[in-house]
Amino acid sequence: xxxxxGWYDDGSGRQRWWDGxxxxxxxxxxxxxxxxxxxxxxxxxxxxxxxxxxxxxxxxSSPDRVAPVLGFVGxxxxxxxxxxxCIPVTFVVGVVVLIAAFVVSLxxxxxxxxxxxxxxxxxxxxxxxxxxxxxxxxxxxxxxxVGPVPPAVPxxxxxxxxxxxxxxxxxxxxxxxxxxxxxxAAQFEILAKEGGIVGYEGDPDFYPCMGRFMYDSEVSxxxxxxxxxxxxxxxxxREIAGEAIKQATLSCQS
Length: 254
Hints:
single chain; about 250 residues; DUF2510 domain-containing protein; transmembrane helix
């Protein structure tokens, strides 16, 4: 069975080059201590000069390349973080995920014997995703704060017509309105002074209380207007008005 080419022990303790079919004249130089110098990678045993197989030793072969797991994890986190950062409600979560993606991708770059491109792409995307997410979030928030734009109002105004609008006649609501509590109070004070009643002059809240009480009573507006004008209330409401005045006097005495 033919052995692959390499440095092997030729049986004398020296390393000789086996070309795959026969021994060559090339012999590895010995170190000062008598031990053979470091040789190429270890190979299988080759037949020695005296017919015996001899195993050789040499520096360990290069380890196999491993899959860039951290690189792909960092790249996936960068994509997820970019999407989350573009949504205002998940912006903070997206930033945290992007930071984690950058760290994982950096560790993937520093890992030996792995492909570096997924980690490099993850690092770049984590930075770009953070910038894009910040811009998109700011635009959405600004648009929300400004609110919808109202429709444009036409600047041109219709020409004014020369036809004068008739002036509406004044209504009688002000005349027929219920007298205010102040008007009622002032009239009761006048009637009291004309009748010689001076016992309530020391109480400044008495007549305003009377006016408010009569204003809130069941006496009609017309009867109250007659009372304010110094006249008697309607004949049909004289008993009601008299009872209201009596109750107001009792309630407003301090």
